[in-house]
Design brief:
single chain, alpha+beta, 6-stranded mixed sheet, 8 strands, elongated, cell cycle, cell division
């Protein structure tokens, strides 16, 4: 709660690291796909796994320690990656803490502070394939009266692949409709070299 409060109050602060591996980013809701549907015009907090970044100043150190074990070096320095998800367990835990922080019944909570909506990126490791958890305070005036919870799941394509014909089935269907024994190439042509024409009211028949 204190970390989110700090991010909320510090306008020039856009991100911070919580614990050892959790990154919290403050951004516009339009930049987050699921939040774009609900929180388009407001700031949101996005929680994801913190990613190690290789600093340019470390290049010389890598050269000087080239005799070190490659596996050990690989654990320390990783190339910059895109956003990484948190485990479902960790995501649920963060969502629970956030919900409690907005609960007016909890004595330690500052009831006058309304946090930005929270969106947690998940690793889809549960049976439902959860990709995002979201939470948004519901306010009446300046007081929080509840919290909306969102779950975004993704199980892959929604189209039933069984409905499509396979390549082998397509080939067999083609053979049924076009039997090789009944197919052949045959052609004929008839040419009219002179045609029929009328010359001074005289009709000339083609030969």
């Amino acid at each position: 709660f204190n970390v989110l409060r700090c991010l909320l109050e510090e306008e020039n602060m856009d991100s911070c690291i919580y614990g050892e591996d959790i990154q919290i980013i403050k951004m516009n809701g339009s930049k987050v796909a699921p939040a774009n549907l609900y929180c388009d015009n407001q700031k949101v907090f996005v929680c994801e796994k913190a990613v190690l970044k290789v600093r340019e100043s470390d290049d010389e150190q890598v050269e000087d320690t080239s005799n070190c074990d490659d596996d050990a070096a690989g654990d320390v320095l990783q190339p910059e990656q895109g956003p990484q998800p948190l485990t479902i367990t960790k995501a649920r835990q963060l969502l629970s803490w956030y919900t409690l922080s907005q609960n007016a019944g909890v004595l330690v909570v500052d009831n006058g502070l309304v946090l930005h909506p929270l969106w947690v990126r998940c690793d889809m490791s549960d049976p439902a394939g959860t990709a995002w958890f979201g939470a948004e305070p519901v306010c009446m005036g300046s007081k929080v009266t509840g919290v909306k919870l969102y779950t975004v799941t993704c199980k892959g394509s929604t189209v039933d692949k069984k409905a499509f014909i396979t390549l082998e089935e397509l080939k067999q269907e083609h053979k049924k409709r076009h039997h090789p024994t009944s197919m052949g190439i045959k052609g004929s042509a008839r040419f009219n070299l002179y045609g029929s024409s009328v010359v001074e009211n005289t009709f000339i028949v083609s030969q």
